[in-house]
Amino acid sequence: MRRAVLKEAAKRFPWLANVTLYGCLFAGGDLVHQLIAQKERIDWKHTRNVAIVAISFHGNFNYFWLRALERRFPGKSAGMVFRKLLLDQSFASPLATSVFYTGVSFLEGKEDIFEDWREKFFNTWKTGLMYWPFMQFLNFVLMPLYMRTAFMGCCAFLWATFLCFSRQNGDGTAAVALAFVMDPRKTLEEMREARLARKRQKAQREN
């Protein structure tokens, strides 16, 4: 019964249902990252910022982007699906990653909103190529158009956990993220030491 109600809501209000779900799942990914990191106190301000970026840009962008792809390359033939995947990973994915890093930094009031982007974008995009093409293939082949943004949101729950870790503690690589899951405290300490070493090197070069 509940499943039927949700499905009907997604059909009648596709934009609202898809974008809201996307934002909630992205925020949930940030909470999972904080729980794994075993923080003494949940940083609700960071979760709020992640949700704002996800709802204002990611959810809306993906909603209209997926519809534009379907209009330009309709159907589920191998050729059409390949074209959608190629465009999605060469244009949409880098854009979404860039907006996440710069958008959250902007909301936090960082002086240099491009700092995280410069340090972590390329690694993050390469890591995404090991995850998103497979998820989007399932999305384009199995999901009806009105559910595709919601499906992306479900996939983005795990991805948001990775993104939030990468932005706050990691370097955008899957290896460091996996090490964090296995031993959070040790990995966080190693990443702090690495950041301090980079700052010392940068200060020495400037002097």
TrEMBL record:
<keyword id="KW-1133">Transmembrane helix</keyword>
<dbReference type="GO" id="GO:0016020">
    <property type="term" value="C:membrane"/>
</dbReference>
<keyword id="KW-0472">Membrane</keyword>
<feature type="transmembrane region" description="Helical">
    <location>
        <begin position="145"/>
        <end position="165"/>
    </location>
</feature>
<feature type="transmembrane region" description="Helical">
    <location>
        <begin position="86"/>
        <end position="107"/>
    </location>
</feature>
<dbReference type="InterPro" id="IPR007248">
    <property type="entry name" value="Mpv17_PMP22"/>
</dbReference>
<feature type="transmembrane region" description="Helical">
    <location>
        <begin position="49"/>
        <end position="66"/>
    </location>
</feature>
<comment type="similarity">
    <text>Belongs to the peroxisomal membrane protein PXMP2/4 family.</text>
</comment>
<dbReference type="GO" id="GO:0061668">
    <property type="term" value="P:mitochondrial ribosome assembly"/>
</dbReference>
<keyword id="KW-0812">Transmembrane</keyword>
<dbReference type="Pfam" id="PF04117">
    <property type="entry name" value="Mpv17_PMP22"/>
</dbReference>
<dbReference type="GO" id="GO:0005739">
    <property type="term" value="C:mitochondrion"/>
</dbReference>
<feature type="transmembrane region" description="Helical">
    <location>
        <begin position="12"/>
        <end position="29"/>
    </location>
</feature>
<protein>
    <submittedName>
        <fullName>MPV17 mitochondrial membrane protein like</fullName>
    </submittedName>
</protein>
